[in-house]
Amino acid sequence: MFHEKMLCDVCKSEISQYYDESYKGNRGKCTICGIDFPLE
Q1: Phi–psi pair at 24, nearest 5 degrees
Q2: What local confidence, expressed as pLDDT, does residue 4 receive?
Q3: How far apart are CA 28 and CA 6, in angstroms?
Q4: What is the DSSP string of 1-40?
Q5: pLDDT at 10
Q6: Any bridge partners for residue 29, and if so which?
Q7: 1-40: per-residue pLDDT in tens?
Q8: Which of 5, 21, 30, 33 has its CA 20 to 30 A from that of 13?
């Protein structure tokens, strides 16, 4: 299950959330800054 909408700390753009099979968990990515991080 995905988390509620999140905003990037750097540019305040909405974070895109997805499931990463290789990581085996949910991740978030800012499509503007390119920052990618685990959500769990």
Answers
A1: 65, 40
A2: 74
A3: 9
A4: -PPSP-B-TTT-PBEEEEEETTTTEEEEEETTT--EEE--
A5: 92
A6: 16, 36
A7: 555 789 999 999 999 999 999 989 999 999 999 999 998 7
A8: 21
Q: Is 39 exposed, middle or buried (0-12, 13-18, 19+ CB in 10 A)?
A: middle
Cβ neighbourhood burial of 2 (10 Å; 0-12, 13-18, 19+): exposed
Whether the Cβ atoms of residue 23 and residue 17 lie closer than 8 Å to each other: no
Closest by alpha carbon to 7, among 24, 38, 31? 31
Contact in structure between 33 and 10 (CB atoms under 8 Å): yes
Q: Which pLDDT value is given to residue 2?
A: 53
How far apart CA 36 and CA 32 sit, in angstroms, is 11
